[in-house]
Amino acid sequence: MDKSLRAAALACGAAVLTAWSPGAHAAYTFYNDDGANGTLSGGYPQFTITGADDGSGNDDTAFYVQTYAAATTVSFTWHYVSLDSGGSAYDPAGWILDGAETQLSVDGGPGTTSGGALTVSIGAGQTFGWYVHSFDSTGGAGVLAVAPDPPPPVPEPSEAAMLLAALAAAVAATRRRP
Hints:
By secondary structure, the chain is of the alpha+beta class.
C-alpha cells in the first residue's frame, strides 16, 4: 500500500477512535439550581436526568453541562416522558447552549412522551448540555434519557466485498499511471 494512502487511512482511523473514546470529551457537571432534588443516572454519553419532585412548589432545574475547549458537534438520541400528574408542560426538557434553553419535549398531558435524534454544533469556549426544568417540583418529574447517536450500520458482506473490490480497483488504477 502506498505510504501516503496508509498514512491517510491511519489518520482517519485515529480520528474515529478519538471521537468515540470516553476521554475525547471533557467531564460534564451535574447540578440543580435552588437546592432541588433532580438526579442523574449514568454519565456522558448515555445518561438519564430526572427533574425535581421534592414537593416544594419551587421553580427548579437540573442541568448536565460542560464547556468545550475546541469546536465540535454532539450527536445524540433522546427520549422524554412526563411523570407529572399535570402533564409535561410543568416539566419541560431539552438542551442548553451558553444559557439559551431549547426545549425538546412536547407539551401535553400526563404520561406524554417524545423523542428524536439531533446534532448540535458547539463553538470553542461554549457551554453545552441538557436540562429538565420543573416549574413546581410537585406532582411527578420529567425524565430525559440521552444516548449517543447510533453509528452507521455495518455493511452486509456483499456490500463490503463490493466496496473492497472498488477500493482495490482504485489503488490498482493509481499504480498503473505513468
